[in-house]
């Protein structure tokens, strides 16, 4: 993955597309946990908790809007 810029909601949304390895429009816990750990410094258990917390439709994944909201909540974007 190239170095993503994480400054605006548009940047975060663009990076979402890179993280969505299978191109299905959502990030599975496996696709998002590594970035949560790397960029936010949380352990795997907390990363799973964050996915559950921001998974508004409770499908077990994060769509682009949910991911942007997660990032904004963590970093005030």
Describe the structure.
- It is a single chain.
- The chain has a single domain, classed as EF-hand (Recoverin, domain 1, Orthogonal Bundle), CATH 1.10.238.10.
- The protein has 77 residues and is mainly alpha-helical.
- The model has no long low-confidence stretch (mean pLDDT 83).
- 60% of the residues lie in helices and 5% in strands.
- Strands 1-2 form a two-stranded antiparallel sheet.
- The radius of gyration is 11 Å and the shape is globular.
- Helix 1 packs across helix 4 and helix 2 packs across helix 3.
Task: Produce the secondary structure layout.
Layout: H1 9-19, E1 26-27, H2 29-40, H3 44-54, E2 62-63, H4 64-75
Antiparallel strand pairs: 1-2
Helix pairs in contact: 1-4, 2-3
